[in-house]
Amino acid sequence: MKKILVTGALGQIGSELIQKLRDTYGEDNVVATDIRETEADVVKSGPFELLDVTDGKRMYEIAKSYQVDSVIHLAALLSATAEAKPLFAWKINMDGLLNALEVARELKTQFFTPSSIGAFGPTTPKDLTPQNTIQRPTTMYGINKVTGELLSDYYHQKFGVDTRGLRFPGLISYVTPPGGGTTDYAVEIYYDAVKKGEYTSYIAKGTFMDMMYMPDALNAIIDLMEADASKLKHRNSFNVTAMSVDPEAIAKAIRKYIPHFKLDYQVDPIRQSIADSWPNSIDASSAKEEWGFKVAYDLEKMTEDIIKKLKDKLL
Ligand code: AKB
C-alpha cells in the first residue's frame, strides 16, 4: 500500500490524478498539496496541505508528518508561461524539483515527476523522435525539463532514489483546464466547439504535436510507478503518446459530432515558435517494452468521449 504526497494537486494533472490515486490507494493515503486552497474536491476528499514548493523545509515537514513513501511532484510552470517569465520559471521549476528530490532522498521514498515533449528542440529528429536522441531545447521550459530528467537520473544513480518519469505530450482533459502551455489549444478547441461551434487557433494549420487523453496519462503514471524496477532502463524520461495531430485533424474529428464547427486561425508567434521547436511525433516503444505502456484512446475515441462529457458539463 502506498502513501503518496502530491504537489501541484489543483493543476490540470493533479486534480484528476488525486481522485484516481484516492480511489486506488485509499483517500487517507494521498496527501494533496498546492500553493492555493479552493473548494475543489481534491481539497475536500482527503488530506490537503498548503505548500509553496520553493519552501523545502515545509515540504519535508509535511512528507515526514504523513510518513509518505512516494512523492509525485507536479507543480511547475508550463512552456508559454515559462517563456514569458524565464527566471521565475527557473525558480519554481528547478527549486521546486530539487526540494522534492531532496525529500525523496531524505525520507527514502519513491519519486515521480513528469518531463515533456518540450525536452526536445529544433535539432532533435522531428518524426518518430527516438527515446534517446539529441536534446538541445531552445525554451526555458525545455531546459528545465532536460535538467529535471538528468537530476532525476542523478538522484537514482548517486543516492539510490527510486525516481521515475514520463515525457508527456499535450494532455487533453475536460475537468481542469491547463494554463500557460503551448498545447492548450487542443483543450480550448473542444470547449469552444461545444460552447460556440467555432474556435480561433493560435497554433497554425499543419503544426503536428503529440497529444494524449487524460485517463491514459493517469494510467501511465500509476503503471510506471507500479512497474518492476529491474525492467526499467529509461527511468526518468519515457516517451509516451497516443496521437500526433494538428488543429485540422482535431477539427475534422469534432465535425463528426458538431458538423457546423468552424476553425480559423490567429497564430501567436511565441507559442507557434515553441511548437515548431518540438517534435511532430515521438516513438513510445521503450515505454511499451519496459513496462507495457498502452493507451485506450485515439483521436476518434477521445473526441467522442470529451464532447459527450463537455455537453453534460457546459450545456
Ligand atoms: C505545454 O504545452 O507546455 C505542456 C507540455 C507539452 O509540456 N502541455
From TrEMBL:
Cited Gene3D superfamilies: NAD(P)-binding Rossmann-like Domain
Superkingdom as given in the UniProt entry: Bacteria
Domain NAD-dependent epimerase/dehydratase: 4-233
GO BP term (any one): L-threonine catabolic process
A GO molecular function held by the record: L-threonine 3-dehydrogenase activity
PANTHER family xref list: L-THREONINE 3-DEHYDROGENASE (PTHR42687), L-THREONINE 3-DEHYDROGENASE, MITOCHONDRIAL (PTHR42687:SF1)
Family of this protein: Belongs to the NAD(P)-dependent epimerase/dehydratase family.
Protein name: UDP-glucose 4-epimerase
Organism: Tepidibacillus decaturensis
Source species taxonomy: Bacteria, Bacillati, Bacillota, Bacilli, Bacillales
